[in-house]
Amino acid sequence: MPFRFQRLTTTYPEFTSRLLADNPDWPELSHAALYARCTAACFAETDFHAVHLRRQGHPAENHFLSIEPLQKRWAAENNVQYRPQHWVEDIALAQVEAFQPDVVWLDDLYLMDGPFRRRVRQACRGQVLLVGWRSAPTTDFKVFADLDLVLTSIPSMVDQFRAGGANAALLHHAFEPSILETTPAVERRDVALSFAGGVGALHPERAALIEALIDRTPLELWIGGRRLRTKDRVRHWLGRLGMPQRRKWRMQSLALRYPDRVHPSVFGVDYYRVLARSKIVLNAHISCAGDSAANMRLFEATGMGACLLTDHKRNLPQLFELDRDAVAYRNPDECAEQVHRLLANDALRRSIAQAGQRRTLRDHTYARRVEQLVDMLETSLSRRAA
Fold first, then answer.
1. Whether the predicted model's global pTM rises above the 0.85 cut
2. Which of 165, 295, 347, 378 is the most buried (most CB within 10 A)?
3. Domains of the chain with CATH codes
């Protein structure tokens, strides 16, 4: 039985800024045209869930709540009034009221808190299945008990949500094969080892790994978005003289030490182009993942045909066959050893990269994940009806 599905999500501010900069004609665009530009940029999961749900016959739509020009254009075209200081919430609730979904997927539970969720329910004339997504640091799991279903890509968090009173289930991230058609192929992979992603306060182990590898491997980084200020340069040279530095300053100083190997951060299509250029893609999980392989890079790197080198996790063999589809390491020393082993053996590295891509295109696509999602949602909707 078809159900109406609506996903409310957000994007990084840096992505929004670049989207508007890359599309200087955005003030003249309709909501539909600007939305199409946004989804074509392929940021994170973009609207892949909605696309595949529609292919299965479920009316589905997706909204990027944090992209101000996009949301305000929708409000203008639909004669929606909103409070200037509360435009995010007011426009989002108007979109819920207009669509009248059976299922609402809330992708950002930092923004979409308890009071917001209550207003979403009030905006629906009938009962709505409220689904939340969370694979991020969490201290209080009890605050999600009001959700009908909490989905996460981290197995250990399923038990934590359940202990907090929420109905929770596991749903892994995925790769969208159509990206291979929209991302230009490269004749040769000219980046030996890459990492593109965050190294902020939430990723101390990742930052430590990068510091351990930067002098021992040809690692290239896409982690920075701004030029270093004078005081950052002073901190860098103080560090070179042996003065203590906070880790974020040490990460920033990498741009001075390795100007040809530290690049601005990349998102969406630009991110996939880096993966397409990479022989090996380095992966390291966020701390809250614990002993679970759970992040998006697992499937993005393999989907783009790079050799995945990732931190060893208990459930990793359930996703990839080790040393056939992907390679794992347990510490920085072993990671460096694996890098040199793979770069020294082109045939082995290419074989692993090709096997990893085949595995992802077979088992870890959004089409497959949406099949799993539909089963979960139909079960939950049936229980609610009963």
1. yes
2. 295
3. 5-174+365-385 (3.40.50), 179-363 (3.40.50.2000)
